[in-house]
Amino acid sequence: AVECWFADENMVLSLHLGNLGLQGAFPQGLQDCASMTGMGLSNNSFSGPNPPDFSRQVPYLTSLDLSYNSFSRSIPQNISNMTYLNLLNLQH
């Protein structure tokens, strides 16, 4: 589900795409969702590395759920710069 800030604006508030069987690399184009506060991509088949500039693309995230995917490499260190992040789920 995609939730927008206001019905008449094209600004994404949150993106919840869990359990949809999505696969491939981490979704690109997040710079177009800079005002987003919540992202849930759990229980899919995403793989490969997380983008190194992730924290700059979506700086206002308060919740991030990337659990139950197949991402490789380490978590980008700059994720610790996400000052609004309250919930981070990287399980499995």
UniProtKB/TrEMBL annotation:
Family matches, as InterPro entries: At_inactive_RLKs, Leu-rich_rpt, LRR_dom_sf
Annotated signal peptide: none
Matching Pfam families: LRR_1
Segments passing through the bilayer: none
Protein name (database record): Leucine-rich repeat-containing N-terminal plant-type domain-containing protein
